[in-house]
Amino acid sequence: MVLLAFSLGLKATFWGLVSGSALLIGALVGYFRKVSPRTVGIIMAFGSGVLISALAFELMDEAYKNGGFGAAAIGFITGALIYTVANYLLSRQGAKHRKRSGGQQPSESDNPGSGTAIAIGALIDGIPESVAIGVTMIHGGAVSIAAVIAIFLSNVPESLSSTSGMKKAGRSAKYIFAIWAVITLLSGASAFAGYAVFSHFSPEIIAATVAVAAGGILAMLSSTMIPEAYEEAHDFIGLITVLGFLAAFVLSKMEG
């Protein structure tokens, strides 16, 4: 039994690393290739639609089935509240524009401590998704491939945009890639923790935890990714977001 639990924990870690590796891919593209802000906005809009679909049809549906409406609703609001408060505090320290690809990000000389705030902000943006991967494996031991692909697809434009902004703010390649490498590793660790820690709790707590991740993701999208997408590609933002949503929806139903 212990060996099976450890094996599933390693499986969760693997999928967490897979989804998190997209952050490094996006960072490599954002640092070494000149990608137009409009293209970044289009990619972010698509990624936002993908994540909205995943949190609706994978995470919240899972939370409702396993814990009922009360656990799902409380967890969802709690996740949004936690993220909003953390994001507000970090924004005041210089991380407000951490997802922006333009010149909005402050340099360390302009705002001392902003680099640390940006790193922590990137961390809180990504960890809920990874925890959710591990938690959704508790019932049945199988990962939701649709959720992993959705998180992977959304992580690429997220780090691409942020990396472009960090580079323009004068931050070094060592600093930028260290952030994304650490977050990738923590994505794997968070997925493992999501499975190993919460598998011992009641279905209601597990459901609430999944919903917390969903609430945090939606708050992150509306606070950071969608504004950046609209800023750069506002003419087509609605259509592209819908296409991303539809792509993830189809994938989810094919998996089911």
Distance between the termini: 27 Å
Amount of helix:
over 70%
The string of secondary-structure elements, in order, is HHHHHHH
Q: Hey, roughly how much beta strand do the residues contain?
A: under 5%
What do these coordinates show?
The protein is mainly α and 256 residues long. The chain has helices at 2-32, 37-95, 114-135, 145-168, 173-198, 203-233, 237-255. The protein is 83% helix and 0% strand. Helix 1 (2-32) packs antiparallel against helix 5 (173-198) and helix 3 crosses helix 6 (203-233).
Main features:
mainly alpha, 256 residues, 0% strand
How is the topology of this model organized?
Elements: H1 2-32, H2 37-95, H3 114-135, H4 145-168, H5 173-198, H6 203-233, H7 237-255
Helix pairs in contact: 1-3, 1-4, 1-5, 2-3, 2-4, 2-6, 2-7, 3-5, 3-6, 4-7
What is shown here, in short?
This protein has 256 residues and is an all-alpha fold.
